[in-house]
């Protein structure tokens, strides 16, 4: 019976795949010409960048379907050639999951090169229902279990080594603070959020081999406004949000390996073969992150699916003095070349940002590609060359792709990003100090509001009455302030403010603090190194650069350029300041022995005898009477006469 | 202490102390001086050793190759400096940028309280240029500083060249864990003060500066480089900073260790160390070196650009290249390698330098005297003051009971008057310079210095015996109580000074303790007055100037010495106004009034 069903299903599958093949073929026939393909690609990247955007053009829908069918065909072909057992498996309703990988390479203004990997797994399932999800295909089981066990609605974790240099590199695709950052939205069914959070951090600590178990109540805050859920859902009660950073966390290979293991192809195939730690950690900046959130399944948003997005950003230092042209290749960057896409991936692409020079004067990319794509990235219209790894033609005759980029850099002069920030500790001495946070709005004529989040450990006692916000020499009153005072050894300070940044200005937020004297067991093993204060977070909707472009030198239709506001007039941006290293008053830890010795001596010899001298009353003792006198006294006593 | 419990023995002890008080004091004084002189004797001192483990065991290789090119850059810098007539800001910015640094500038301006005649400046305007080499994968929390002053004339161009050469070389290395800030500061200490105040956003001296744009977190250590010729024969390490603060001894050890390793002649106080400690000349050499350090530390002024870092708890030292035309030459490559080695080791630091001593004296680079060894010398001097505190236990109470309010007034009045004189000495010179310039044919600087001397001398002639107007006559107990107060005052004052700045405390104790110990109204007036004037703070300073010149083997004639003395006073006042040095206010507001109290006792009627 089973065999019969098996053969039946196999037949069905073959027919099905044949049908698909024919359809695909016909589609292909209709889609001739490179031009069309480029356009498709354009649209697709646009839709990709506008996630969650409800309206999608029907044409795009159609194209996507086309792409998916091609993939199905490929898998079907494979299964056809394999043993019949797998055929049985495949007849079971397919888990609706999907994996995409992409790599964006952007030569930076400073001459460095920025590579950003994104791996996205989508899975249409519901972890929260009563029935337990037990069958995992692309989605990593370890994370799936975490989601269902701890009722996580959204989870964002990042590990970063280094500080993103906004002034030289511009904006990153995904900002993250130095060290580790974790923020989680729990489902509103969770009753003991703190307990769940504690458990979750410990579990994540194991999964990522990181010291996330150092997250406790003293460094966890509940921001009221800065961290809104990025996925769908309308619960924004910040009781279910927990946010913590560990600025001291050092990120290295042991964090990368478990991160890579979460990928469906591991580091065996696809873009992940490039992730070799000896090169990734030989860079100026390294950041890896995991984001889990619920997203819409389709544009109608009837069902939700879970999105796991793994990102890895790395900036390579390309400094070669006295050389006009810079040259960089995949092999030089990662000491690997690409030979195939991940077979499980529905899409696998490499984008190279060639916006700065679309004519190819400064830029030279080889092998050349005719696929171009445009996208709005961080308020700026960028042009990318696209390499689709799912097509054999990309790999050429040598069956390996080694992208080579040559470009001229304009090293030295700094960028003026629309929004950037810096922070430092002012003052000297070990008693008090002042935290200065500077926020720059470099927009020539528009002001915009920013949300500033500061989480300061309890051992810096903030004098909140000294809080000042000034811009352009004038007092700038925040329209919203949320302040939660610290409790010694229990919770940190939390300060959130909504500040309007005037155009072309520097806004300075200062607050004074006092350095607490810790108990001697509370010092770290290296107390003279100082104590870290995590980055402050600035979240803002920044007016886009495209909308800023009001000069009408560029050729464009007149009817489109009257109202300055374009379709994407502002974009969301998060900026992290540098963490602070603050020295606290530190006792000399080699001293206790000396101190004990000295104190004992002083107490015993000095104080003891002085006390003696001061409290004892001295009397001159009468010399003891002689023997004769004593006998006389006894006799006198017997006689009842007073003694001598 | 069982000794004291027994009343008989206690009485005996007290009577011994009262009877032999003067001889004991003399013995203490001699012992204190002898102890101090013994500190320079090598068998009594400790060899320096590296306490910081992070810098000790790790070996680093020095490979800096480009000394010649650095000197070329230095020459280019000098050409541009001449062309710009000051700091060639644009050129420096461009050069630093081409070396891959993040470059920032800071403008500052300062009007001195009165013209500085030594350096010929009054209205100071300048620009600091600094470039930050960002360490890869470091979160901008820690930084090291290498600075070279851009001085007028032909000085120090080589230092800027070496600094730029090192910047270029460091940029290509991968091992940096801390940001490195390369700073070229104009107008030496004023520029450095402006930069440090800007970096830490403080304003202690009322200087105008533009805020800094780039920072590297908390600065862990700093070195300042001064070179004035292409080839140097030895490198001199300068440690003395503002208010006599010293960097951690490990910084000196690091310098010494690398000099030994690379084979560079290194000196401190401009004096090579000698091996013949057992000979008289060897010992006197060590004494000279130590005395120079004591004099410099006591002066409380920063003896190099590093001196201002110490206020911010940043360990810093100045390295000076000296060309004394010896046979042995060191080229720029070697200096570059030395600095490279030092920075690599500082880069390895896990914590701030804190393991070794902060209070020390150095009779040579390889030996040091720690606080535990030198404090007894001061302690012996301070003991005299305690011994001279009257043994009449009920002096104060009986005095208060018998003399009452007028008695208190008669002691209070000299106290107030002498302190008012001190305040006058502190404030008048700067405030009255304009009037003085109008009425006398002197320059502003001379006006300030001469006013100071005039106020000082006028203080001696003030009618101190005002208590007679209040009470009719000075009581016998009156001067005793005044002396008791003055001696205790001096003891506390010197004790506190010596804890912060041993050298200053010790020098003041050497001169003031004998005065305090032996002055009474009964001693012969003229002779005592003469001795007291000789031992007064102003004369101490004069002798120190001569002694300092002598120790530096640059003796001066009396007239030159006097001119030098005047300039030292003006520099002291300037240091206070510009960098916040505390020696001038300490002397004017506390030491001098205290000395006036003893002067008062001498003329008590």
Automatic annotation (TrEMBL), chain A:
Composition-biased stretches (Acidic residues): 49-60
Annotated segments matching region Disordered: 49-91
Signal peptide annotation: 1-24
GO biological process: attachment of GPI anchor to protein
Keywords recorded for this protein, A-Z: Signal
Entry GO terms, CC: GPI-anchor transamidase complex
PANTHER family according to UniProt: GPI TRANSAMIDASE COMPONENT PIG-T, GPI TRANSAMIDASE COMPONENT PIG-T-RELATED
Protein name: Phosphatidylinositol glycan anchor biosynthesis class T
Species assigned in the record: Cyclopterus lumpus
Taxonomic lineage from the root: Eukaryota, Metazoa, Chordata, Craniata, Vertebrata
Gene: pigt
From TrEMBL, chain B:
Keyword Metal-binding attributed: no
GO cellular component: GPI-anchor transamidase complex
UniProt xrefs under InterPro entries: Gaa1 (IPR007246)
Pfam families per the UniProt record, alphabetical: Gaa1
Example GO biological process: GPI anchor biosynthetic process
The protein's name in its UniProt record: GPI-anchor transamidase component GPAA1
Main location: endoplasmic reticulum
Protein's pathway: Glycolipid biosynthesis; glycosylphosphatidylinositol-anchor biosynthesis
Membrane topology (UniProt): Multi-pass membrane protein
Transmembrane segments: 20-41, 357-387, 407-426, 447-466, 486-519, 526-548, 582-604
Organism: Cyclopterus lumpus (Lumpsucker)
Keyword terms, alphabetized: Disulfide bond, Endoplasmic reticulum, Glycoprotein, GPI-anchor biosynthesis, Membrane, Transmembrane, Transmembrane helix
Compartments in which it is found: Endoplasmic reticulum membrane
Function summary: Component of the glycosylphosphatidylinositol-anchor (GPI-anchor) transamidase (GPI-T) complex that catalyzes the formation of the linkage between a proprotein and a GPI-anchor and participates in GPI anchored protein biosynthesis. Binds GPI-anchor.
Subunit note: Heteropentamer. Part of the GPI-anchor transamidase complex, consisting of PIGK, PIGT, PIGS, PIGU and GAA1. Interacts with PIGK.
């Amino acid at each position: 019976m089973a065999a019969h069903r098996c053969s039946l299903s196999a037949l069905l599958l073959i027919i099905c795949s044949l049908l698909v093949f024919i359809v695909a073929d016909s589609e292909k026939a209709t889609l001739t010409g490179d031009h069309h393909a480029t356009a498709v690609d354009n649209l697709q990247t646009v839709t990709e960048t506008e996630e969650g955007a409800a309206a999608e053009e029907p044409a795009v829908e159609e194209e996507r379907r086309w792409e998916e069918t091609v993939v199905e065909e490929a898998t079907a072909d494979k299964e056809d050639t394999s043993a019949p057992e797998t055929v049985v498996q495949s007849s079971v309703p397919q888990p609706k999951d999907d994996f995409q990988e992409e790599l964006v390479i952007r030569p930076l203004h400073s001459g460095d090169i920025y590579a950003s990997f994104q791996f996205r797994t989508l899975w249409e399932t519901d972890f929260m229902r009563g029935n337990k999800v037990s069958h995992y295909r692309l989605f990593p089981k370890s994370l799936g279990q975490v989601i269902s066990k701890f009722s996580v609605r959204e989870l964002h974790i990042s590990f970063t080594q280094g500080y993103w240099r906004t002034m030289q590199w511009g904006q990153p695709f995904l900002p993250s603070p130095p060290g580790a950052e974790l923020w989680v939205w729990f489902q509103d069914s969770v009753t003991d959020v703190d307990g769940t959070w504690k458990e979750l951090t410990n579990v994540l600590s194991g999964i990522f081999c990181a010291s996330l178990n150092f997250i406790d109540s003293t460094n966890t805050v509940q921001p009221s406004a800065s961290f809104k859920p990025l996925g769908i859902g309308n619960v924004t009660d910040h009781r279910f949000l927990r946010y913590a950073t560990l600025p001291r966390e050092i990120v290295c290979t042991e964090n990368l390996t478990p991160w890579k293991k979460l990928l469906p192809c591991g580091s065996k195939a696809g873009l992940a073969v490039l992730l070799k730690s000896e090169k990734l950690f030989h860079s100026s900046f390294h950041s890896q992150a995991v984001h889990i959130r619920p997203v819409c399944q389709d544009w109608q948003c009837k069902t939700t699916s879970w999105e796991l997005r793994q990102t890895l950003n790395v900036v390579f230092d390309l400094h070669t003095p006295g050389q006009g042209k810079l040259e960089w290749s995949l092999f030089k960057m990662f000491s690997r070349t690409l030979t195939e896409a991940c077979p499980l991936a529905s899409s696998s692409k490499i984008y190279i940002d060639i916006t700065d020079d679309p004519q190819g004067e400064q830029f030279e990319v080889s092998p050349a590609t005719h696929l171009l794509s445009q996208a709005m990235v961080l308020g700026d219209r960028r042009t990318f060359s696209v390499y689709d790894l799912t097509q054999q033609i990309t790999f050429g005759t040598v069956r390996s792709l080694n992208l080579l980029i040559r470009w001229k850099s304009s090293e030295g002069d700094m960028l003026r990003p629309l929004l950037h920030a810096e922070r430092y500790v002012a003052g000297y001495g070990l008693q008090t100090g002042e935290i200065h946070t500077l926020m720059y709005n470099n927009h020539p004529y528009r002001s915009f509001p920013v949300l500033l989040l500061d989480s300061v450990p309890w051992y810096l006692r903030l004098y909140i009455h000294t809080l000042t916000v000034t811009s352009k020499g004038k007092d700038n009153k925040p329209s919203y302030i949320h302040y939660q005072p610290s409790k010694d050894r229990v919770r940190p300070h939390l300060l959130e403010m909504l500040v309007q940044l005037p155009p072309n200005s520097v806004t300075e937020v200062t607050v004074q603090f006092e350095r607490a004297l810790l108990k001697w067991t509370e010092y770290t093993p290296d107390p003279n190194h100082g104590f870290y204060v995590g980055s402050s977070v600035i979240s803002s909707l920044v007016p886009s650069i495209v909308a800023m472009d009001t000069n009408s030198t560029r050729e464009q239709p007149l009817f489109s350029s009257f109202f300055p506001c374009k379709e994407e007039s502002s974009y969301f941006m998060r900026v992290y300041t540098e963490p602070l290293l603050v020295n606290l008053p530190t006792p000399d830890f080699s001293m206790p022995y000396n101190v004990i010795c000295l104190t004992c001596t002083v107490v015993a010899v000095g104080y003891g005898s002085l006390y003696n001298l001061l409290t004892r009353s001295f009397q001159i003792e009468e010399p003891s009477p002689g023997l004769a006198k004593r006998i006389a006294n006894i006799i006198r006593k017997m006689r009842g006469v007073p003694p001598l | 202490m069982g000794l004291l419990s027994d009343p008989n023995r206690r009485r005996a002890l007290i009577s011994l102390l009262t009877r032999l008080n003067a001889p004991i004091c003399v013995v203490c004084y001699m012992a204190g001086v002898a102890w101090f002189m013994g500190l320079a004797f090598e068998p009594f001192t400790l060899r320096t050793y590296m306490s910081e483990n992070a810098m000790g065991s790790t070996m680093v290789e020095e490979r800096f190759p480009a000394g010649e090119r650095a000197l070329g850059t230095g020459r280019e810098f000098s050409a541009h400096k001449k062309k710009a007539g000051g700091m060639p800001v644009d050129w420096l910015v461009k050069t630093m940028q081409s070396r891959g640094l993040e470059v920032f500038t800071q403008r500052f301006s300062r009007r001195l309280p009165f013209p500085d005649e030594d350096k010929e400046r009054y209205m100071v305007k300048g620009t600091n240029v600094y470039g930050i080499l960002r360490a890869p994968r470091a979160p901008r929390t820690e930084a090291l500083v290498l600075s070279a002053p851009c001085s007028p004339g032909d000085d120090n161009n080589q230092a800027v060249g070496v600094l730029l050469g090192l910047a270029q070389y460091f940029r290509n290395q991968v091992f940096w864990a801390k940001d490195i800030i390369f700073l070229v500061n104009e107008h030496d200490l004023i520029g450095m003060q402006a930069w440090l105040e800007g970096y830490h956003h403080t304003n202690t001296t009322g200087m105008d500066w533009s805020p800094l744009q780039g920072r590297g977190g908390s600065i862990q250590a700093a070195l300042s480089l001064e070179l004035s010729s292409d080839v140097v024969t030895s490198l001199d390490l300068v440690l003395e900073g503002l208010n006599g603060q010293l960097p951690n001894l490990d910084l000196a050890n690091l310098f010494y260790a690398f000099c030994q390793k690379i084979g560079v002649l290194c000196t401190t106080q401009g004096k090579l160390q000698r091996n013949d400690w057992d000979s008289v000349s060897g010992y006197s050499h060590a004494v000279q070196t130590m005395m120079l350090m004591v004099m410099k530390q006591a002066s409380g002024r920063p003896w190099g650009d590093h001196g201002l870092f110490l206020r911010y708890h940043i360990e810093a030292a100045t390295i000076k290249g000296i060309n004394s035309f010896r046979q042995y030459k060191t080229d720029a490559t070697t200096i570059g390698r030395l600095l490279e080695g030092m920075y690599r080791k500082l880069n390895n630091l896990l914590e701030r330098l804190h393991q070794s001593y902060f209070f020390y004296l150095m009779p040579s680079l390889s030996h040091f005297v720690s606080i535990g060894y030198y404090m007894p010398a001061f302690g012996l001097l301070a003991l005299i003051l305690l011994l001279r505190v009257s043994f009449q236990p009920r002096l104060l109470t009986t005095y208060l009971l018998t003399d009452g309010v007028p008695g208190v007034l008669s002691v209070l009045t000299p106290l107030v008057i002498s302190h008012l004189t001190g305040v006058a000495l502190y404030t008048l010179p700067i405030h009255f310079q304009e009037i003085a310039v109008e009425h006398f044919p002197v320059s502003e600087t001379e006006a300030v210095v001469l006013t100071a001397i005039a106020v000082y001398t006028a203080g001696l002639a003030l009618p101190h015996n005002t208590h007679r107007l209040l009470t009719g006559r000075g009581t016998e107990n009156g001067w005793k109580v005044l002396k008791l107060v003055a001696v205790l005052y001096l003891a506390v004052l010197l004790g506190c000074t010596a804890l912060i700045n041993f050298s200053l405390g010790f020098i003041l104790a050497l001169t003031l303790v004998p005065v305090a110990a032996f002055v009474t109204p009964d001693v012969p007036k003229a002779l005592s007055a003469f001795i007291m004037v000789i031992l007064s703070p102003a004369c101490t300073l004069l002798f120190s100037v001569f002694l300092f010149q002598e120790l530096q083997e640059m003796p001066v004639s009396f007239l030159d010495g006097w001119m030098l003395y005047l300039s030292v006073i003006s520099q002291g006042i300037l240091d206070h106004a510009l960098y916040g040095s505390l020696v001038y206010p300490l002397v004017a507001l506390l030491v001098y009034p205290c000395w006036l109290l003893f002067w008062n006792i001498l003329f008590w009627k």
